[in-house]
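Hi everyone, sorry if this is the wrong subforum. Our group has a chain we'd like a structural model of before ordering constructs, and none of us has done structure prediction before. Sequence below.
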Amino acid sequence: NDIARFLQANLGRVDSGLAAAMRATHETRADRQMPDLAMGLGWFRSTILGTRLVVHGGATDGFNAYVGLDLAARRGVAVLSNSEHEVQNIVVHLLVPSVPLYQPGSPGGTSR
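Answer:
Right subforum, don't worry. Here is the predicted structure as tokens:
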């Protein structure tokens, strides 16, 4: 429930005393880290197939997490995993369905 409330607050779907601060964290503060990967305050900003996303992920031994926000559509996804497998592709696929979902067991590690 906490993560769902966090997503809703970041998307402006619920009232929060931190709304202005959350919006400020989404704004680009540095854009020279990597091409087409601007940085907000703790968030990365990226355009994937024309959809502008605000994302952040992290991992520790045996666990992985990734959060993505489509601010324009006011949609967000969080994926938490108790494995070391990347979950970024799942989040991106759910927000931008035309991005293929990676199939780790497919020949050559290709998407299908």
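For your construct planning: The chain is about 20% helix and 35% strand. The chain has a mean pLDDT of 86.
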